[in-house]
Amino acid sequence: MCYLVECVDPAKCTIKIHGKTLKISPNDFGWVMGLKNPGKEVDIVGPVQDNPDLMSIVREFSTKEGKSMMVLKDVENYLKNEEASMDEKFKRLFVLYTICTILTPSAALMIPQKWLLPLRDTNLIPHSIGLNTLSSI
Asked: Is 15 left (phi over 0), alpha (psi -120 to 50) or beta?
């Protein structure tokens, strides 16, 4: 998987395999990865501060130096905790972790707060998180 990530040029929407450069679309990527592309744009505009649930996550998982980035390893440790309840916070963190590790594996180990914005309403997650998340992130 790491080899494939290195072969992808997201700016050109291409992948280089065996010396050949192939153009790929979000639908192609979805077919290969088994992900649906609902065709909706993901809203990552707006302040996280307006949502108390999101701010609680930011405060708990942010770096000590600054509150603008969250630590991926801390999110992972929370999800591994057997005592973590399957509540709204868990759902948000699970999707956030998935975005960071599966959809954007080349991203840094720090998570920008704005990545929480599509997770404001956990009831909408199955309908709002798709391949268009990648173009917004």
From this structure: beta
How far apart, in whole angstroms, are the C-alpha atoms of residue 79 and residue 68? 21
Judged by phi (left if over 0) then psi (alpha if -120 to 50, else beta), residue 46 lies in left
Within a 10 A sphere around the Cβ of 99, how many other Cβ atoms? Answer: 21
Predicted TM-score (pTM) of the model is 0.63
Helices (H), 1-137: 2-7, 26-33, 52-61, 72-80, 88-98, 125-128, 132-136
Distance (Å, rounded) from C-alpha 92 to C-alpha 6? 28
The band of 113, judged by pLDDT with boundaries at 50, 70 and 90, is confident
Residue listed under structure tokens 């707060």: 113
* Residue 110: strand pairing partners: 71
Percent of the chain predicted with pLDDT > 70: 71
Q: Which residue has the tokens 């798709």?
A: 130
